[in-house]
Write a structure and sequence with these properties.
The complex is a heterodimer of chains A (about 325) and B (about 475). Chain A is mostly helical and about 325 residues long. Chain A has 13 helices and 2 strands; from the N terminus they run αααααααααααββαα. Chain A is globular, with a radius of gyration of 20 Å. With about 475 residues, chain B is mainly α. Chain B has one domain. In chain B, strand 1 and strand 2 form a beta hairpin. In chain B, helix 1 crosses helix 6, helix 2 packs parallel to helix 7 and helix 4 packs across helix 6. Classes of the chains: A mainly alpha (about 325), B mainly alpha (about 475). Chain B: One of its GO terms (molecular function) is heme binding. Chain B: One of its GO terms (cellular component) is cytochrome complex. Chain B: InterPro entries: Cyt-d_ubiquinol_oxidase_su_1.
Chain lengths: ~325, ~475
């Protein structure tokens, strides 16, 4: 194998940068896909009608587990390509990470356990765990991301605003996803949360970037004032405003598309703010933190084709469960 | 060799848990204990799910639709529990053992990433279809989904064990200095992934999972047969579990014996701890050993044991036939694992293994005489054995993991040198406490769900009057197209 895979140089000269991109892509997939799951979890709290609640659970039931795997893919690929970044990032943010995975745990088991017993008290407990976990998970993950990008303490404006940003954008995608899957009355009712979420998200990002420029948090002020970031921010504002328009006109599928671009652009923003550094607190660049050529060549040759296959059967999964949710009961 | 700092000797006082190292080890040990219960459920239940799905789809046999519906629900709950307990694990290398992750990242990162991409995605995506897609995909795709879920579970175990086997018998790397730290660098992927330990571990672990789940399926089936007497579905389920045990239980003993010799060859210190063999020389097989005082339970240097032994049998087992052979003793090493824990875990596992063989033979002979459902005594024995497969699986895992201490990477990196330097004892203790409480709750919830499912099954079979609170309704599902 070592004869086929080069030991002393990367298969492609830009392979370390490619892997920075791949890791960021996995992060984006996670933020986009599990984002609407979180959003549905938060919007669940606004519904008291049992049928509405069950419809919300139905909307993401077949896909949430697969969505969540993107987090593991992100984590393990970060470990495989940039082990020192993985280690330092998690060790430096110990309580945040543990809090985040516990929030994921509570939101993950709740819907599955809820449907196993129709006892009222049991279901209320599961509901609380579902809503609480769905709110805390994006908040803590966002704060973690803020600390990573801007090298700031947990209780600081940039970290907290990044947390709020991820939480509000999740509300937007969650509302758009439910609207596109259910249509009619539920959608009409939920879109106002989506619109409010869009406004707070865009406002939050504006305040966040202003704060960063003023305080030069993590030395990223210059990066924020660059052209690529201005373009990403402008695109976010455009798709946010377009989304509000689509939601008002009840064009829910279009709204979903524009809503999903928001977390995707947010991830792109993260990548642009970091690069070429990968962990500002240590000053390590992508090139300095990346594993040796043989290891990276190997995960490229064995891992990237599989990632394409994964994308293909994700498309299959979403295809199988496309179309609106109706009250039709079947299961195993 | 990696830079090794002095190993801080473990002492028996409870205060040791105030150190971040021991709290981290306890946390990792506890979280993996609970995770393994659910991971093994996926691995062991997969063959049952594939078989029941296939029978249900291709025969009009009502029995199998009942069995499939029951066990797929158990599988789904177990998979969710496995996911939510697995995600913390995937980050614990970084949160609690970042120096291990940095040093060994190149070697362990690849296989862990392959696990997520090749196995975990496969299982999660096609489980979604298996659970909710019956009316939305063709019969062929539906059965294929169950097969892909099974392949996902077995592949998942494979890649995780690639990592663990490398930690037991590391090879295929050298060390370099990167960013001021000496780290392992991959030099030979084939050697690093296909370590000598991997085939032994994989067969033993997958077989142990199938045994554990066969005992679980057998126990639940035996209970339902005992309660109803005439449920043909559950009689069929019991028979399948017994037949599977008849193959897997003896295989585990034969394979385990050879695996033991492999451990004696490659990790003599672990073998010595398994046998409480203190002085290099002829090894006896201790059938029983009692510590003379309590500190011997946790003190790795404990030598004071009262033992009941068969002379020479330890050497016989280590070498595969020579009762006089010299076996390395714990005296060869400066620091040893907590011998009593390893010793007793090993005996517990082996003892249960023989019990399973006996149970399988008993069930086999009843099946042969077509009296499987008639023997109340056998049904009760199967019910009693329901959790024992898991007990054997966990104690076996303790032998593997505790037996390797003080090393996290055998001969290369000590656990004490792998722990986070920034972690405070308070943080480590607080999160340990939270994980203890939450995971006990998870196990309780999983058992409650199993109980509800069994009660609901009894109601369906007309044995139990339906009650208001335990009704189990599926949420309305997706229907119609664009």
């Amino acid at each position: 194998m070592t004869e086929l895979l080069s030991v002393d140089r990367y298969l492609l000269d830009a392979l370390p940068e490619v892997w920075f991109g791949v890791v960021m892509f996995a992060l984006a997939m996670y933020v986009v896909l599990d984002g609407f799951d979180f959003g549905i979890g938060m919007l669940y709290a606004t519904r008291s009608d049992e049928d509405d609640r069950e419809t919300l659970l139905s909307v993401f039931g077949p896909v949430w587990d697969a969505n969540e795997v993107w987090l593991v893919a992100f984590g393990t690929m970060l470990l495989a390509a940039f082990p020192s970044v993985y280690s330092r990032l998690l060790a430096d943010n110990y309580l945040l990470v543990i809090g985040f995975v516990l929030a994921l745990l509570f939101r993950g088991i709740a819907p599955e356990l809820r449907e196993q017993c129709e006892d009222d008290r049991w279901q209320r407990m599961c509901d609380a765990s579902f809503v609480g976990g769905s709110t805390l998970a994006p908040l803590l993950f966002g704060v973690l991301a803020g600390r990573w990008i801007f090298d700031v303490p947990t209780l600081s404006v940039p970290a907290l605003l990044t947390g709020v940003g991820l939480t509000t954008v999740s509300v937007v995608t969650g509302a758009a996803f439910i609207s596109a899957k259910t249509g009619s009355s539920l959608a009409a009712d939920l879109r106002r949360y989506g619109i409010a979420g869009t406004v707070s998200y865009l406002g939050g990002v504006a305040i966040l970037l202003t704060t960063v420029v003023v305080t030069d948090a993590g030395g990223t002020a210059d990066a924020v004032l660059s052209v690529p970031i201005a373009v990403v921010v402008a695109l976010s504002a455009l798709s946010g405003l377009a989304g509000i328009g689509f939601a008002r006109r009840e064009q829910y599928r279009r709204w979903l598309v524009s809503a999903l671009t928001l977390p995707a652009l947010l991830s792109l923003l993260v990548a642009l703010l970091l690069y070429p550094v990968i962990y500002p607190a240590t000053g390590l660049t992508v090139r300095e933190a990346v594993v040796s050529p043989l290891a990276l060549n190997l995960v490229t040759v064995m891992g990237l084709p599989v990632l394409l296959l994964v994308l293909w059967y994700f498309k299959f999964l979403y295809g199988v469960f496309s179309g609106p949710v109706v009250d039709e009961s079947y299961g195993p | 060799m990696l830079p090794l700092e002095t190993y801080s000797a473990v002492n028996a006082e409870w205060l040791i848990f105030l150190s971040p190292e021991l709290a981290s080890r306890a946390q990792f040990g506890w979280t993996i204990t609970v995770h393994i219960l659910f991971a093994a459920l996926s691995v062991g239940l997969a063959p049952f799910i594939i078989y029941f799905t296939w029978k249900d789809v291709w025969t009009d046999d009502e029995r199998f639709s009942r069995l499939r519906s029951f066990w797929v629900t158990v599988f789904a709950v177990g998979f969710v529990m496995g996911t939510v307990t697995g995600i913390p694990m995937s980050f614990q290398f970084g949160t609690n053992f970042p120096r291990f992750a940095t040093i060994a990242g190149e070697l362990i990162g690849g296989p862990l990433a392959f696990e997520a991409k090749m196995a975990f995605f496969l299982e999660a995506v096609f489980l979604g279809i298996l659970l909710f897609g019956r009316e939305r995909v063709s019969d062929r795709t539906y059965v294929l989904s169950s097969v892909l879920v099974g392949i996902g579970a077995w592949l998942s175990a494979f890649w995780i064990l690639v990592v663990n086997a490398w930690m037991q018998t590391p090879q295929g790397y050298d060390t370099i200095t990167q960013n001021g730290m000496r780290v392992a660098r991959l030099t030979d992927p084939v050697a690093a992934f296909l370590t000598p330990r991997l085939p032994w571990m994989y067969v033993h672990m997958v077989n142990a999972s199938v045994i554990s789940v066969a005992l679980l399926v057998g126990g639940v089936s035996a209970y339902l047969v005992w309660k109803t007497h005439d449920s043909t579905a559950w009689q069929a389920s019991l028979k399948i579990a017994v037949l599977l045990l008849l193959v897997t239980a003896p295989l585990q003993a034969v394979h385990g014996d050879a695996y033991g010799r492999h451990v004696a060859d490659t990790q003599p210190q672990k073998f010595a701890a398994m046998e409480a063999h203190y002085e290099t020389g002829q090894a006896d097989l201790h059938l029983l050993a009692f510590p003379k005082d309590l500190s011997a339970l946790t003190d790795p240097h404990a030598e004071n044991l009262y033992t009941v032994s068969l002379p020479g049998l330890g050497s016989y087992l280590a070498t595969g036939g020579d009762p006089d052979a010299e076996v390395l003793g714990l005296n060869e090493y400066e620091h040893n694992p907590p011998v009593a824990l390893v010793f007793w875990s090993f005996r517990f596992m082996v003892g249960l293994g023989f019990l399973f063989i006996g149970l399988a033979m008993w069930g086999g002979s009843l099946t042969y005489r077509d009296k499987l459902a008639d023997s109340d005594r056998f049904l009760k024995a199967m019910m009693a054995a329901t959790p024992l497969g898991y007990a054997a699986l966990l104690t076996g895992w303790y032998v593997t993991e505790i037996g390797r201490q003080p090393w996290v990477i055998q001969g290369e990196l000590k656990t004490s040198d792998a722990v986070s330097q920034s972690l405070t004892a308070g943080e480590a203790m607080a999160t340990l406490a939270v994980f203890l409480i939450v995971y006990v709750g998870l196990i309780a919830a999983a058992l409650l769900v199993l109980r509800w499912l069994v009660r609901e099954e009894l109601q369906d079979l007309g044995v139990l009057a339906p009650s208001q609170e335990t009704g189990h309704g599926r949420i309305p599902w997706v229907g119609g197209d664009d």
